[in-house]
Amino acid sequence: MALKEESYKDKKVITIGTVSEITGLSERQIRYYEERKLIFPERTQKGTRKYSFNDIEQLMEIVEKMEEGVQTYEIRKEMLRKEKQLNEKTVREQMIRGQLNAQFGIQKPR
């Protein structure tokens, strides 16, 4: 089975200045959302933040929620809930796949 290729939307290649231009947020606002653990840029060896297109979409969702009066801790809580649901779904799918493989004698290729 081939490794799942990373989507261009997941690649962390965009600098904070460019994210600021695209979103209209100040660099300080973007750093604040990182401090609140709402976005997770990668860092280069020199400490430069790098963002993905998915990070930009996440930032825009955060801004919309903030404009609706939702607090950052509530946004984080919702993100954690969604992440937990996704993890539970993945575990269930893996268990079912394992049961089916065992039932039908399918072995993983080496």
TrEMBL record:
Higher taxonomy: Bacteria, Bacillati, Bacillota, Bacilli, Bacillales
UniProt keyword terms in alphabetical order: Coiled coil, DNA-binding, Repressor, Transcription, Transcription regulation
PANTHER family: HTH-TYPE TRANSCRIPTIONAL REGULATOR TNRA, REDOX-CYCLING DRUG-SENSING TRANSCRIPTIONAL ACTIVATOR SOXR
Gene3D superfamilies tied to this protein: 1.10.1660.10
Coiled coil ranges: 56-83
Species per Swiss-Prot/TrEMBL record: Ectobacillus funiculus
Name of the protein: MerR family transcriptional regulator
UniProt domain HTH merR-type: residue ranges: 13-81
Pfam family, one: MerR_1
SMART domains: HTH_MERR
